[in-house]
Structures are given as structure tokens and as C-alpha cells.
């Protein structure tokens, strides 16, 4: 069965610090990978996605993620965070079905 | 223009009542979904419909019944509400199957259901 692990449950950073959020998945076949962001009180928005091709994927708002197949990982990065990046971040995966499997989320707090 | 909309945004009700949440998308998508987000922010899929046909039906109590009158709408009806049903329910839609490139899911604003 597919599963997604996000080991960082709560991350606290100062503005301008670099960010890396971990995401590992469990699935034997071809996967599609996503990072969604949920700002306080809002719905989920897609940050970036990986289907195939270049394993380094660039998304909106300066975020990027790298798919490392050998490590079953899809970590999210941003070189310099801003206060407005404070949100909940969800990694998700699907294989050959429509079912999106989400990780438990990482709460990011950025202090000015 | 709102892409995926849900009503109501907040729903407070007593145990044992029956309630419905409505979802509409104006993106021309063929597939719609319902997710439940619990108090710990964990998101889990409940149902998906493709062109009004049920595709995914996770292990959800049969008190929950989705209804799709047309491909732009997917409503969620809940009978005999229980305390454990309190959560945020998100509707989503995608163009055809999400497994195909370019068909990411777009989420609605959520409905916060509180059962007293």
C-alpha cells in the first residue's frame, strides 16, 4: 500500500533562513509526487508537482523539490523563507490511481 | 471567479442530525473528490467520482453518501451525525485522472463541521 511520511511535524525558522522539509514515500511502481500548502484558514494550494523528467522541480513562490528515486524521497526546499511562508505543508503521492495519499503535514512557523 | 466552491463554510449541528455539504466546480473537470481533514490536520480521501460515476470509495461509514447530480457537482450527505464526524471536509476536482500529467487536484475552501 502507498504511504507518505513527513518526519518534520513542526519547524520554526527565522526569516531568511533556508528550509528543507522531508518527504518519503512507500510505493513500488511509478509515482507522481506533489507538495501542497495550506495557509492559515485557507484551502490547499499546489506548490509543485513531479510526474517525470528533470527530478529537480521548481514551483511557485521560490519553492523547489528534488525527487530522489533511490531514496524514495521528494524533499521541499526554499533558500530563504519569509514570514508569509508560515503555513502547513503537505506532501502527497499517487501511483496509477486517482487516489492522492497525503503525509501528515509539517507546520512551518517563520518569525520576523 | 471561484474554481471549486463549497457550502456552507461552517456547519454546527447536534448529534443524530442529517446534514449535507455541497460542492461545485466551474473548471470543466471530470473528476471530483471528498477529503476529510481531522483535528491533527491529517487529510484522507473519502470518495471520488468521474463523470457522475463512483470511482473511489474508501472505508467510510455508510452514513456518508456522496451524490453527483452532474459532473460539476458532488454533494456529501451525512446521516445520524456523530461526534467523531467533526472535521474539515474538502472537495476537490481534477481534469480526468490525477495520475496523468497535468491533472493536479484543485481544492475547495473547506467546510468545518462541528458536531455537538
How are the SSEs placed, and which strands pair?
The complex is a heterodimer of chains A (112) and B (116).
Chain A: E1 3-5, E2 10-14, E3 19-21, E4 24-26, E5 32-38, E6 44-50, E7 56-58, E8 64-68, E9 73-78, E10 87-94, E11 101-102, E12 106-111
Parallel strand pairs in A: 2-12
Antiparallel strand pairs in A: 1-4, 3-9, 5-6, 5-10, 7-8, 8-9, 10-11, 10-12
Chain B: E1 4-7, E2 10-13, E3 19-25, E4 31-37, E5 43-50, E6 53-57, E7 64-70, E8 73-78, E9 87-94, E10 106-107, E11 111-115
Parallel strand pairs in B: 2-11
Antiparallel strand pairs in B: 1-3, 3-8, 4-5, 4-9, 5-6, 7-8, 9-10, 9-11
In a few lines, what is going on in this structure?
The complex is a heterodimer of chains A (112) and B (116). Chain A is mostly beta strands and 112 residues long.
Q: Which oligomeric state applies?
A: heterodimer
**Which whole number gives the mean pLDDT of chain A?**
92
Uncertain residue ranges of chain B: none
Distance between the termini of chain B: 34 Å
- Strand residue percentage of chain A: over 45%
Ranges of chain A where pLDDT stays below 50 over 5 or more residues in a row are none
Helix content of chain B: under 10%
> What's the shape of chain A?
globular
Please name the two chains that share the biggest interface, counting residues whose Cβ lies under 8 Å from a Cβ on the partner chain.
A-B, 26 and 28 residues
Major β-sheet profile of chain A: 6 strands, mixed
Number of helices of chain B: 0
Shape of chain B: globular
Strand % of chain B is over 45%
Find the count of extended strands of chain A (DSSP E, 2+ residues). 12
Which structural class should the secondary elements of chain A be placed in?
A: mainly beta
* Count of helix runs of chain A: 0
CA gyration radius of chain B, whole angstroms? 13 Å
Order of helices and strands of chain B: EEEEEEEEEEE
